[in-house]
User: What shape does this take?
Amino acid sequence: MSFAIATFVVHFAVAGGYGYQRDELYFISCARHLAWGYVDQPPLIAVIAKIALTLFGDSLYGLRFLPALAAAATVAVTGRMCRRLGGGLFAQSMAMLGIALAPFYLAIGNLLTMNAFEPLLWIGTAYLFVKAHDDDRPLQWVALGFVGGLGLINKYSMFFFLGSCFVAIVLSPERRALRRPGFALAVAIAAAIVAPTLVWQAQHGWPQLAVLQNAAVDKNVVVGPLAFYLQQILMMNPLAAPIWLAGLWALLASPAFRSLRWYGLAYVLLSVAYLALGAKVYYLAPIYPVLFAAGASALEARFGRLRWATIAYPVLLLVGGLAIAPEAYPLLPLPVFLSYEHVLDFRGIKMEKHPEGRVPQHFADMLGWRTLVRSIATAYDGLTPQERREATILTRDYGQAAAVDFLGPAYRLPHAISGHNNYYLYGPGDASGRVVLAIGLSPAMLHGEFRSVEPVGTYHDQYVLPDFNDLTIYKCTQPIASLAAWWPATKRYI
Assistant: This one.
């Protein structure tokens, strides 16, 4: 429990660092438009955002309270899984420390994103299956179905995880559990939970598939097998690699872990599937807590009597994890981080094709939003009173639109519209389209819709990514056609 509490404190203490992240702003917008589904995600994250906003207002600390709690719970369940696998106090401590300080888990533990809850839902599902398989109690199967269903409405990658686990179980002696009535009950509960969002996707033409297809072509960095697995080591902390690699080996080959061999096989199946699909390297990251639990237990059985090892290795993990931590989450003030980055720069993992800026993308996405909104507000204030009454703010992406919607009221700005993902479905609303302040869109597109396109401002912030920086703000008037008529041209599902 002490490791879980420490994990919560580590994340919550810096929850106010840097600023709102791009996706957090978008999820806040989704929370204000609750639905059974969205273009690019299931509905759970919007519900969580709605709960956070209702309980805590728009405070960054309030927004990131539940992600920090999920990070702590992930560490706690990792320890419980390790104990169930026979691990003693040393093994449990090593497994929890390894997960708590893994760069990927540090990076997601204080952001309101789907990724913050995914590891907890994955290990929770695995842990409940093990318990239900061993004890065969109806309540455990119900809990398994409920947690699995939550995972499915948190992120659709849960389908790949559950599918890999199912195939792996079928190939293992544990397949006898699949014939139990409790398993059928769990499947029914999970299916009932996810059904509404699948119906929503079907009714809207499966936009999630379009997002994935377009991102694979235009946005995501695709790597080969060697780079894919090397970057797994980087995400989990190279110093911790002996733990989870030992766990994978133990699950696949050790007689002591025969009952959980299916999980090692699921890792192999899922990683191969993600490689074949050209998925981002971090999509595999939620699977590691069980590997850490198994590996720590296996290493304790082999080296637990070496007193120097039980002290030296955890200290090495702690020191190494703390050294990497400023690169993973906002531990240091930004000017201090920029200096620290000259000493240690761990930008070995690139997820998207955007050119790098002064800071890594996961930090850049937290910066510049107030500057953006102030820049738009300056252009808006430069309009005539009549123009301001009719003005609409049009942005290229959901981050810009959500920033205007969330931060803009302080500057008396109207709501933003965008063709990006779910903002496209929101539509132009009652905007007349006679006066449009556009940012991030090409002049060629704007000239195709307006007779007058005039630059009235520029957005610049030294820390954001180059692709999102130095953007011209255009005042567009004298529309050639109605806004509703050319709205389909703004559609961007990516």
